[in-house]
Amino acid sequence: MAYIETRPTQGRHFLQIPGPTNVPDRVLRAIDNPTMDHRGPEFGVFGKALLGKVKKVFRTTGDVVIYPASGTGAWEAALVNTLSPGDRIVMCETGWFAHLWHEMATRLALKPELIPTDWRRGADAAAIGEALQADQGHAIKAVCVVHNETSTGSTSRVAAVRRAIDEAGHPALLLVDTISGLGSVDLRHDDWGIDVTVAGSQKGLMLPPGLSFNAISAKALKAAETAKLPRAFWDWKAMLAINPTGYFPYTPATNLLYGLDAALDMIEEAGLDAVLARHDRHAEATRRAVRHWGLEVQCAEPEEYSSALTAVRVPEGHSADGLRAAILERFNMSLGNGLGRLKDRVFRIGHLGDLGDLQLMGTLSGVEMGLKVAGIPYSPGGAQAAMDYLSGNG
């Protein structure tokens, strides 16, 4: 059945979770086009152009494959195409999604070594370097890092991780999850020496869920020749054999690809650097509001603040989920919940994707009103602090 609001509301719902994000009308209209024959000549022309466009947002000249799947599927593709059963890999537990990727690796019969954190910072490049330096036999085959940890609002310094690998003189592959970072936070697949970049459609790319991506280095393609983890649907080989013609080895998510094409055009027209600068600006405005309220940002390292979202800690004795429920009920706005060990401890403000200054101000005003309704101690004026910053930094 069609989507129906389940309770009386006034105005349009504010979806301010850290993904899925709001889908621009231009992308929705593209998705609404009639489905074409995915084996016909028109699709080949369309697909070839699209596969060329998508490389730009990854900042790569290498191959990018597109799966009709969530980001979890692209995680699995990255692992099974490059690794073999029993391979040791290094992972850093920066938050809930790093934890889930580790869990997947374990289920795939890999041997992940987890570097713990307090879930308030990005991946520890120094600790990764130490693990690799100790591995004189080069038994470790890959380092897996979450670039933008959606559960905590912390961004890992991937370039520093790459330097740590190089300084250790270690041949391990570098696999990076930027599912919530692509199109929102600076990511340079080629310049940072990433071997597999994992991404999804429903965050900075401004699409509904349903597409995921692997950007692949030549080194990763070489590793795939000897990797022995079972793979069929996720096999890069089948994809890369036919992608140069613009086609896919199975029925693609045609209408989502229409939307992707429109979204990439929007990013190209605005300029990727300008899009990233807008995300930086909105993130700073949000943090200024949080600090003025007297609340604490979950990420404890200013250099690792995410520009895609801000996770906010509520004071001891108060409920983040209660606050979210009050805001949804009174003001028709959805905020992200706390995940894993942060359940009911944080709420998450998504400020990524198709977002303008007025939308952000509506969001922060809704949070400020919600703090009052929920009885959480705060200092009024956070929304004004954000407004002052935005109006003075256009």
Number of helices: 13
SSE string, helices as H and strands as E: EHHEHEHEHEEEHEEEHHHHEEHEEHH
Q: Spans of 5+ residues with little confidence (pLDDT < 50)?
A: none
Mean pLDDT: 96
**Sheet with the most strands, sense and barrel status:** 7 strands, mixed
Spatial strand arrangement across the major sheet: 2-10-9-8-5-3-4
* Structural shape: globular
The radius of gyration over CA amounts to: 21 Å
Q: Tell me the fraction of residues in β-strands, as a range.
A: 15-25%
Helix content: 40-55%
Structural class category: alpha/beta
How far apart the termini lie comes to: 43 Å
- Beta-strand segment tally: 14
Describe this protein with a few key phrases.
globular, 394 residues, 3-stranded antiparallel β-sheet, 7-stranded mixed β-sheet, 41% helix, alpha/beta
Structure description:
With 394 residues, this protein is an alpha/beta fold. The protein is built from 13 helices and 14 strands. β3 (88-93), α4 (96-107) and β4 form a beta-alpha-beta unit. α2 (41-58) crosses α9 (254-270), α10 (272-293) packs parallel to α12 (357-374) and α11 crosses α12 (357-374). The protein is globular and about 60 Å long. The chain starts with 13 loop residues before the first strand and ends with a helix.
